[in-house]
Amino acid sequence: MAKVKVATVWLEACSGCHMSFLDIDEAIVELVNAVEFTRSPITDIKEFSPVDVGIVEGSVGNAEEEEVLKELRANCKILMAWGDCACFGGVCGMRSTFDKDEVLRRAYIETESTCDGKIPRPPGVPALLEQVKPANHVVKVDCYVPGCPPDAKTILYALKELLEGRLPVLPSDMMRFD
Amino acid sequence: MNEITLTINGKQVKGKEGDTILEVCRANNIDLPTLCHYDGLSDVAACRLCLVEIEGERRVMPACTYPARDGLVVQTHTEKLEKYRRLILELMFTEKNHLCAQCVASGECELQALAYRYQMDNLRYPLSWPSLPVDSVNKYLVVDHNRCVLCGRCIRACDEFAGIHTLDFGYRGWRDRVVADLGQPLGESSCISCGACFQVCPTGAIFSKSSAYKGKSSECEQVTSVCPICGVGCEIKAFVKDNRLVKIDSPDLSKPRGLLCNKGRFSPLQPFAKRVLTPLKRSDGKLEPCSLNEAIEIVGARLREIKTRYGSNSIAGLISGQLSNESAKAFKDFITGSLGSKQLDSLDGDCLRLVMQVLQDAKKNLKDIEVSSLEELLEADCLFVAGAAPLETHPVVGSYVVRAVKRNGANLIVLDATGNSFPYQATLWLHPEQGKEALVMKALAKLIIDEGLVSASNKNKKRVAALADVKTADVCKQTGIEYAQLSNAASMLAKARRCIVVYGQGVLQYRNPELLGLFFDLADILESDNRVTKTLWLKPKGNSGGQWDLGVVNTGEFSVAKLSKNKSIKALYLLLGDDWTEAPELASRPTGVEFLVLQTSFVSPIVSEADVVLPSPLWTEVSATYTTLDGLNKRVARLVRPPEGIRADWELINEVDRRLSK
Predict the structure, then answer these.
(1) Contacts A81 to B, Cβ<8 Å
(2) Segment B555-595, tens digit of pLDDT
(3) CA of B182 vs chain A CAs: smallest distance (Å)
(4) Residues of A whose CB is below 8 A from B127
(5) Does the structure show a pLDDT above 60 at B458?
(6) Contacting residues for B28 by C-beta, under 8 A, at least 6 apart
(7) pLDDT at residue B456, rounded to an integer
(8) Domain A4-93+130-174 carries which CATH code?
């Protein structure tokens, strides 16, 4: 039976959800019998190819992340969101409570240890979006695994549901936002 | 109450006339989600989570405010209603910045629990990301508006449970926000930091600095007890994790003495001062740690020696009025029994004896003239508060006063030179120059009698004679009070049907029996066929009443004031417990005292004067009994274990007693 192809991206993220996924420890041995990871920070493969399942960690905060997410969406049949940032905006969305230019000024000029700071602009760096968005506000997302990060057991449960042909909706007793 | 029958979700259920649909659901185990409802507070139907479908009604209705009627047919969990609930939650989450990962309340947040219940794993609405303030100016509480769902429970708790009504909604529409007074930081407002808002807040919008991140309630052991700090005796529920106090809540904010205050709720969680953790003995002029055995040996030996050389009455014992009945009794038995000394007193002995003496001279019994229970304050229609700032010293009493003003339209007359007592709530503030209170009381009495506001009975004719040379105009000039104010006060008092005179240290501090007597006179003047007048004495320490009942105070032969004059005191045993003394007579070792033993929890200035220091536990670390302001005996349960080697005060005293007799 052909392996299910999976691609993952991390956007405006801390990588915690990917690390939590790796906390499935030895269960990964059985998993890779059924699943092939293609483009992913874990494999370090950098090009997109058509996959069955796309997984996004992190929210969309700049133009490049928006592009990457759209490319992932175009290349996968089912898109799953991992973590509070992808599902709700999360910690990475906190800068949205401030004006975008204020954020850039604070980060690149006003920080106490900076001398002669300069705000980097496109095309050198991707443009910041006005506000950070959760994944489903940019592309269609099919299923969600919230948490910060969701724990390994929960991620594994969601993946197994997919492998058995069902779109997972976490039951209440598995839902965590922290 | 008549029984009614409704059909809810196709089943016949019973309720009582006057119930809301929500109450009928709760009584029949129908789990209707709510957020702005809180048992004991009025309902406002703000959150809309409890919307139900009622046959005959065109629109969905909130169950928390809709009166249940016989024959109603209700649906509580249709697909449409469940969808609405999910929408409401998504609207709440997108309106503000609800970041669970860093929040103190995560794991015990009602908003989060509802989101889990409705399996909310994404948000369909655009996120607002508003820029909202965090107010951490208050000493104990933080208000984080990013987490607020505008349920209004804090506002209603501040109004209905506490009575202070500091909080309310400010601004409009999407800028709507909970504000303190006219938009001040909470720490610069009329807030008394009772923490009721913190307890009722469903999210992490209002949280306590001293409980934050110490542990979730579900991880804690819960201990029911009573707080002994001020003498009101509020019931408390303590949350303890790994022998550490995490949080102190009220078991029921809606019940009498259920309010709590910043003293009982927060101070046990914040380190007050450095603890005395080991016994100390003086060696080569310095205090150094020693074993308990050694410390007790020294105390026993020196007391025995001083008793032999100078006699029993050369040994004096002073106890703080904060200590429990058990500690007080053991101390009294030790000083007056084993040591045979008459020199025993509480640090507040002079105040307590003053009250008793004045009462005796007036041929009155404290029990007859005082309120028989603090809750009588809630029924008053006139309150006269003198020399006391209850909102600071006995906040629950202060709350009762404020509630009487709000609910009964009671007149609150405050006699206070400082302006600290009920600054936002007094109906009439009499503010004489400091020290002139007696003149005010005399002028008030004279006005009441002269203007025929009370019947001229025999008692009053005698008083008229005694007040003959009091000229109201002169009093006004001497005290700085306007005649109109005195006149108003007089008519307010005379109009009352249930009047309570509350007095405290501000009156007793002058040690003036005449002044105190004038307050009892006032109560006497007002007492009549259709007017009940009682007094309430806000005793100086939490267990002043209990210690008086045990006979610790009534001898009067000795007091802290007499200490400096009595050169025959050679040994002093100072039992402070977890209290702190600022008595000027104890600022340094009293002259002539050759041996000073101090039993205390905290390193206060007097520690450096002692020869032996024995460590005391805190009230949270021992099970003991205390007597409330209104004479109720309460058992205070132990909340946490004391530090290694520290035992109950009475156990230490008994140990010293045993060594003494050896």
Answers:
(1) 122
(2) 778 888 888 787 899 999 999 999 988 888 888 888 899 99
(3) 25
(4) 88-89, 93, 96, 131, 133-134, 137
(5) no
(6) B8, B13, B14, B15
(7) 66
(8) 3.40.50.700
Q: Confidence class of residue B362 from pLDDT cuts 50, 70 and 90? A: confident
Q: Mean per-residue pLDDT for B164-177?
A: 95
- Mean pLDDT, to the nearest integer, of B202-230? 96
**Chain A residues close to B85, C-beta within 8 Å:** none
Query: In one letter, which amino acid is B63?
Result: A
What 8-state DSSP symbol labels residue A126? P
User: B100, A145: Cβ pair inside 8 Å?
Assistant: no
Spell out the residues 6+ positions from residue B291 whose beta carbon is closer than 8 angstroms to its own.
Answer: B279
Mean pLDDT for B19-33 is 97
pTM of the model: 0.94
Contact across the interface for A96 and B129, Cβ inside 8 Å? yes
When divided into structural domains, chain B yields a total of 4
Residue in A56, A60, A88, A176 to test binding to B, most B beta-carbons within 10 Å: A88
| Token pair in block for residue B540 | 């100086």
% of chain B residues with pLDDT over 70:
99
- What average pLDDT does the structure give for chain B? 94
Query: B275 in a domain, yes or no?
Result: no
Q: Answer whether A147's CB lies under 8 Å from A74's CB.
A: no
B291 and B261 in a single domain? The answer is no
Both B372 and B445 in one domain: the answer is yes
pLDDT greater at residue B584 or residue B402: B402
Q: A interface mutation test: which of B92, B96, B100, B108 has the most A CBs within 10 A?
A: B100
- A144: distance to nearest CA of chain B, Å? 6
From B643, B661, B58, select the one nearest B292 (Cα to Cα): B643
The DSSP H or E segment spanning B115 is helix B110-117
Domain boundary, last residue among B269, B290, B313 = B269
Query: Is there a contact between A146 and B121 if contact means CB atoms under 8 Å apart?
Result: yes
Q: Which residue in the block uniquely carries the two structure tokens 């970041």?
A: B99
Option in A87, A145, A172 nearest B116 (CB): A172
Helix (H, G, I), strand (E, B) or coil at B424: coil
Task: Please give the residue range of the domain that contains residue B27.
Answer: 3-77
Structural tokens at position B72: 């109603």
Chain B residues with CB-CB distance to A172 below 8 A: 116-117, 119
- Tens digit of each residue's pLDDT (9 = 90 or more) over B93-102: 999 999 999 8
Cα separations (Å) of B298 from B283, B301, B554? Answer: 12, 5, 30
The DSSP secondary-structure symbol of A140 reads -
Is B127–A133 a contact, with Cβ atoms under 8 angstroms apart? yes
Same-domain check for residues B483 and B531:
yes
Residue B166 distance to chain A (closest CA, Å): 28
One-character DSSP codes across B165-234 = --EEEES-GGG-EEEETTTB-GGGSS-----HHHHH-SSSSEEETTTTTS--GGGSEEEEEE--SSSS--
CB contact under 8 A, A97 and B130: yes
Q: What is the structure's pLDDT at B619? A: 97
Q: Which of A165-174, B256-265, B583-592, B609-618 has the lowest mean pLDDT?
A: B583-592
Grouping H, G, I as helix, E, B as strand and the rest as coil, residue A60 is: strand
Partner B contacted by A175 (CB < 8 A):
yes
CB contact under 8 A, B106 and A178: yes
* A56 reaches B (C-beta below 8 A): no
**How close, in Å, is residue A147 to chain B by CA atoms?**
8
Residues of B in contact with A176 (CB under 8 A): 116
Q: Using the beta-carbon criterion (under 8 Å), do B121 and A175 form an inter-chain contact?
A: yes
For residues B374 and B501, state if they share a domain. Answer: yes
Q: How far is A178 from chain B (nearest CA, A)?
A: 4
The complex scores an ipTM of: 0.96
**Is residue B372 located within the same domain as residue B403?**
yes
Q: Are residues B445 and B561 in the same domain?
A: no
